[in-house]
Structures are given as C-alpha cells and as structure tokens.
C-alpha cells in the first residue's frame, strides 16, 4: 500500500475543506499532516478505510479541534476565535461530504493560491503545496532552490494571505476574466517546468507534468463551461502525448519532424483532440484553445511531411491576433517557413526583438541552415546553446552547431 | 472589516500631472471618490502631504539625546504623497477601491493591511 501516494492524491481536497472550516491555512496544513501521521500508523495493519479522502478530512478536522482546544486553554485568542467559527458547529454539515462542482473547496483554494497580489513564484509553490500535496523539499527540488528558500517563500505568501485577507472564494463572473488567467498560467508553468526542465541534466521532470495535468483535469471538471480551461487541458494532453518520442535512447532531444510518431500516446491524443473539438463548438477562442488546436493538427499528421501547414499558419495568425507577442510571432514564422519557404520566414524572424531567448536563435539557425548559410547557422546555434539552461537542449544545439560548421565550405577549404 | 492603508507614491522631481487642468481634474476626482467612500462606509481617514522636502526626522541618539535632522528618512526618489485609510471586507474589496483611487489621483497606490482589527 503506497500510503504517501494515496495521501497525496486526496490531501488537496482535505486541505481545501479545512481551510474553509478553520479559515486558516496553517491550521489546515498541520491538521492534514497529523492525519497523514495517523494513517501511516493505522492503515498498514488496519487496512485502507472505505473512503480514504473522507477519513483524512474527518481525522484532520478532529485533530485540528483538539489542537486548538489545547492551545486555547493557554489563552490563545486566535485559537479561541477559530473555535467559535459557525462552520465548525453546524450540526448538519458533513465536512467530508461530497462537494458539488460549484462549491468545491479546491476551486476556492486555487483562486487564493493564484491571487494576483501574490508573487508569481509563490503562486506556483503554494498551488503545488496546498493542492498538489507536495512537501516543501519536493517543491524546492523541482525548482532548484534550497529548502530554506522555498520554506521562506511559502511562509511569506501564507502570512500575506492571512494579514492582507486574500479571500477564499471563487471570483464572480465579472472578475473571472481577470482572475482565471493567472490560475491557468500557474498550471501551464508547472507543466512547462516538467516538460523542459529549466535546469539540470534530464530534459523533463515527468512528476511536475503529471501534477499539472491533474490540476488541469480538476479545473476542467470544476469549470466545464470555461473554454480556455478545456483548451489548457487539451494543450497539456497533446503535448504530453509526445513525451516518449522527444528523446532517443541516449536521452538526446528529438525535434518534432524527426520524432517516431509510433511512440506518440494515442489515448492522450484522442482525449486532447476531443477537447479541441468541444472548444471549437463553443466558438469562444482564446490563446490556450488555439495552441491546443495547433498541437492537434500536428497530432493528425501521419508523417512530418503530411502536416497541414496551411491550417497551422492560419491558426498562428489567429493566435497572433489574440496574443500579439514576439514569441508567438516567432512560432508563426516557423510555420511560415513550411508554407512560403525559409527566406520569407527569416525576414520575419530577423525583425523580432528576442535576442535573449534561446529558441529565437535556434529557429534562426535552422532557417539559415535550410538556406545554405552554414557559417551563420553555426554561429546562431552557438548563440542558442549559450543561452539554453537545459543540458539535453544544450547538447542538441552544440551538435547542430558542429554539423553546420562542417557543412560550411569556408571551413572545409 | 480590516483596515488598509492606501498610500499614494510620487516620484520626487517629476510632475504627476501633464497640465494644470489635469491636476484640477484629479483633485475633483479624488474629492468625488472620497465622498463615495464616506457614503459606502469604507472611509476612515485620508489626506495629502506636502513634498518630502518639508519632512523632519526625529530619533533617539546613543546616549538618549534627541537628534533632529532635515528629512525625509528614506533617501529615495519615491516618496509618500498622501494616503487613505479604508475599511474593507477583504483584499479584493480593498484592491477594487485602490483601482478607483489610482484612477482618481493618477499615481500608483500601495495597499497594505493594518495589524490590528478596528475595535468593535
């Protein structure tokens, strides 16, 4: 019995319910931790309770009340105030009861964790800690900061939530357009960190990607009428479907055109494509939905040569209209190269101000390579390698730079 | 209800208003906003300050003597220009008021919670 895994899967809901009941994140976290300790003692011999999630919530709630009673006897005014909360004395209230989609405590909690008044790095850490059930050392490792730094970041964010009274509720329809994007960004960034680890030797950190997909599924379950939520889930599933094909047996990076499409995960593709179709029917496009649609077109192609680049370019035009950023323009130029050739694409790429962004130099290098300008290509690959922080990516770019150097006629003279 | 300080930040040496008309308009907008705060029950106190060049710092020296120096305390270009103290249910309510405050006074507004809850 993997108690830690069961616990992690269930603890987000329990923590969220306890935050609502006690109005205090620290009390909720401590109580859920207490329940985990009790589970470790009891479950191996007594067996798994019929509903582990409900058991954790009830056990944690009782432990929190016990703990507060002990503390309030020491004249702790805060503990006394918490014990007087009406939510704790509502006889008809079952703390572990099924929560409907509208009232799910986890949805409230994710909006608290991703509040725009919190620093972006703190939003990610809080979401992983409170909803993902990750321990502070795990989050610290995932983002390559020391445990002390991550603990301090979490403590500071929790103190701000309490002191500044960041509310614990799902924003109303009028606020949602401002408040949903930061939530989606947090899930997307967690996925991206898992997809291409910003540092370290391995290209990916599958555990973070899996956690992001779990969070995206949760959001899609709880907010099924928000097309961008479905679009985000679709984008993550379609990207994840190619994970196994992104590296070869030696851990080397394999680009999309060179991937063995037989290694793509068909079940994830089918799920992602069904979501894209569901989004299209709603006809309320947004950046995540359009990116998912682009990914779905790639998934449809039996071979790299069979890719429908006209459709991809049209989708990038649409994406650029709703998200006019240089990075989107760069990705659009890569599609343009397939439709109108590398020279037209290079002209657009050269007009972009993305000097510090390694994919810019990698894309330029590839276009220069296709135009036979090998020396310039080698220099651009080298520039990209200097800026990339992931070791697998750096090795790939270094090999490309070396190959271009050899292809340069001047070099061979 | 929690009380929040909404402080207005000015950059010394720069004029926040493009023209006298714009300044006049900002004063009018702030006045109207203050009336709204009073009507909605969010108002506690507010005021505008003279420039930081008029500030004086007083502190205790090592042997307990009082040292008075020409201020301000923080030698930065960004200085407090004025403030509101408001009462709000939570940060979202305070931030919504701050959005109206910054639109009225045309300067950045920092929102910070007070430590103690107001006496009931």
Main features:
heterodimer, A: 413 residues, mainly alpha, Serine Threonine Protein Phosphatase 5, Tetratricopeptide repeat, 20 helices, elongated, B: 120 residues, alpha+beta, Alpha-Beta Plaits, 4-stranded antiparallel β-sheet, two-stranded antiparallel ribbon, 2 helices, 6 strands, flat
Overall description:
The complex is a heterodimer of chains A (413) and B (120). Chain A is mostly helical. Among the domains of chain A are: 3-89; 325-413, Serine Threonine Protein Phosphatase 5, Tetratricopeptide repeat. Chain A is built from 20 helices and no strands. In chain A, helix 3 (52-72) packs across helix 4, helix 10 packs antiparallel against helix 11 and helix 16 (342-350) runs antiparallel to helix 17 (358-370). The model of chain A is unreliable at 96-102 (pLDDT under 50). With 120 residues, chain B is an alpha+beta fold. Chain B has one domain (2-14, 29-113): Dimeric alpha+beta barrel (Alpha-Beta Plaits, 2-Layer Sandwich). In chain B, strands 2-5-1-6 form a 4-stranded antiparallel beta sheet, with helices on one face. In chain B, strands 3-4 form a two-stranded antiparallel ribbon. In chain B, a hairpin with a 5-residue loop joins strand 3 and strand 4. In chain B, helix 1 runs antiparallel to helix 2. Chain B is flat. Chain A binds chain B through residues 115, 117, 163-167, 171, 175, and chain B through 2, 4, 89-92, 94-95, 111-113, 115.
